[in-house]
Amino acid sequence: MIRVLGIETSCDETAASVVALDGCSAPKILSNIVLSQIEEHAAFGGVVPEIAARAHVEALDGIVEAALADSAVSLDEVDAVAATAGPGLVGGLIVGLMTAKAIAAAANKPLIAINHLEGHALTARLTDGLDFPYLLLLVSGGHTQIVAVRGVGDYQRWATTIDDALGEAFDKTAKMLGLPYPGGPNVEKAAASGDAGRFAFPRPMKGSAQPDFSFSGLKTAVRQAATAIAPLSDQDVADICASFQAAVADALGDRVARALARFRQEFSDKANPALVVAGGVAANRTIKATLEALCSEAGFAFVAPPQKLCTDNAAMIAWAGIERLRAGIVGENAADFVPRSRW
Ligand code: KG4
Ligand code: ZN
């Protein structure tokens, strides 16, 4: 039995969780506490780093206690403490990693420094027991990446954004249109009653031989369209949202199709290839439907872990800790580990 306490504070969620793995049965999430700071940041239309760091300081001790209490596992009984050490907002990373170091030192447990992206990358093994290799599409407020997940600690980034993250593009579009933060869900809601054919927004990078994403041109096109027809009626906003979402799904689909083809080539002996989606934007139904269709066409399984585990959480960090313990690669001495805002 391996039990790991995980801590996540890299952005605007304060989270702690205990995950257990018992022999050959499926892993169990014994507790998974996530405190979102959305309300603290809403008035500013985005995450304010200083506010985030302070909120983590105030909340983290209580969240860790709650995660232990919920799991009915005492600190003595955990095998290790795993904490996100980057990438992310440095203030939050310091709070989480320092707290984890203190807990680990006091309880005499090993500390494992986890890369936040590794947490997202390995979640599908926690929820769906996927075998390596598989393809991961991570689309959140901070990240837009396609990663070939080949093994624990063995990740190859095939594509990233050359400008805005996809969630950021949703959030900025919402802001331009006067929709509340966080923008993604509100853009999706408005789009439901909109005409996706009214505006012919660009599909950045579509057809390009370069694998990466780009969304800033699309954002500019939305701004120009909105300015040209201002003041905007509710129907105008709905039509812009629907047209924006269609452009995003189309552009994203083009990039993902390329990656699926590359995966087929590079891992030609993989019998049941899978595409895993993670990140807040993966909640979007239009995007999900586009990806599902692509996967079924290309013969890939489409794996979308429950939304609660797709967005930032500490179960994925605890799980990454278990994966590393099990693989015998806990990395450098984490007690000396300095948080890395970029990693
Ligand atoms: O993964 P996440 O919760 O946090 C990080 O960024 O790490 O992702 C949040 C992002 C925000 O930009 C939000 O607007 C976007 O995910 N998002 C959505 C939807 N729900 C959340 N974007 C599009 N459609 C949605 N339904
Ligand atoms: Zn994340």
From TrEMBL:
Entry-linked SUPFAM superfamilies: Actin-like ATPase domain (SSF53067)
Enzyme class: transferase
Gene Ontology molecular function, alphabetical: tRNA N(6)-L-threonylcarbamoyladenine synthase activity
Co-factor: note: Binds 1 Fe(2+) ion per subunit.
The reaction(s) this protein catalyses: L-threonylcarbamoyladenylate + adenosine(37) in tRNA = N(6)-L-threonylcarbamoyladenosine(37) in tRNA + AMP + H(+)
Alphabetized InterPro entries for the sequence: ATPase_NBD (IPR043129), Gcp-like_dom (IPR000905), KAE1/TsaD (IPR017861), TsaD (IPR022450)
Keyword Nuclease in record: no
Domain Gcp-like: 28-319
UniProt keyword list: Acyltransferase, Cytoplasm, Iron, Metal-binding, Transferase, tRNA processing
Keyword Transcription regulation among UniProt keywords: no
Positions with a binding annotation for substrate: 138-142, 171, 184, 188, 284
Cofactor: Fe(2+)
Entry's EC annotation: 2.3.1.234
Protein's cellular compartments: Cytoplasm
Family (UniProt): Belongs to the KAE1 / TsaD family.
Protein name: tRNA N6-adenosine threonylcarbamoyltransferase
